[in-house]
Amino acid sequence: MKKSASPNAAAKPIAAGKSSAKHALSEAELRGMPAADYMNEAQLDFFRRRLIGMREEMLSREQGSKERLHHNETHADPADRATAEEEHFLDLRLRERESLLLRKIDESLRLIHSKDYGYCAKTGEPIGIPRLLVRPTATVCIDVKDRDEKLATHSFSAQHASRR
Fold it and tell me: Which residues contact 35 (CB under 8 A, 6 or more apart)?
């Protein structure tokens, strides 16, 4: 379960030399930290930086996508017109997906600020460093994610079978 701050927490310094102002963790250092250090200030800073980088990258891609969407060309050739329409559709779909991811990034940054980042929203258990490295916006642990996906697959299969 998510550990609560102990009364001695203020007196106990975070690992020497690991404060975010002095040293940014590398991924290898992050992986090598003991489980007892889970979601300490240095780890929160690592994920804050990663999420801010993801956010900045998405915002720069969004600008290029907006420019392409607002660029209106008329094509006399039906094949060229169809290609342009397909590219337009793909840009719209990409913007929709990135908009959703941007909201997840902002929510993860909010969780970091409140010190709730890295813990499963359903069980309160740690999500785990390996999962967060792969998906920094994860809000549930892998066991919950697997269970939810199995339930969704089962539900889809049951609905599909009932339509036959």
Answer: none
Please, what is the Cα angle at 159 between 158 and 163, to 5 degrees?
A: 115
CB 131 within 8 A of CB 31: no
Cα separation, 33 vs 129, in Å, equals: 10
Q: What CATH superfamily classification does 27-162 receive?
A: DksA, coiled-coil domain (1.20.120.910)
The model's pTM: 0.71
Single-letter amino acid code for the residue at 21: A
Q: Which of 158, 125, 161, 135 is nearest to 51 (CA)?
A: 135
More confident site: 137 or 60: 137
User: pLDDT at residue 60 above 60?
Assistant: yes
Q: Are 121 and 139 in contact (CB under 8 A)?
A: yes
Q: Residues 141, 123: contact at Cβ < 8 Å?
A: yes
Please state, in angstroms and rounded to a whole number, the distance separating the CA atoms of residues 100 and 80.
30
Q: Where are the domains of the chain?
A: 27-162
- What is the rounded CA–CA span in Å between residue 122 and residue 119? 9
Cα–Cα distance for residue pair 44/132, rounded to 1 Å: 11
Mean pLDDT computed over 69-93: 78
* Chain position carrying tokens 């975010």: 20
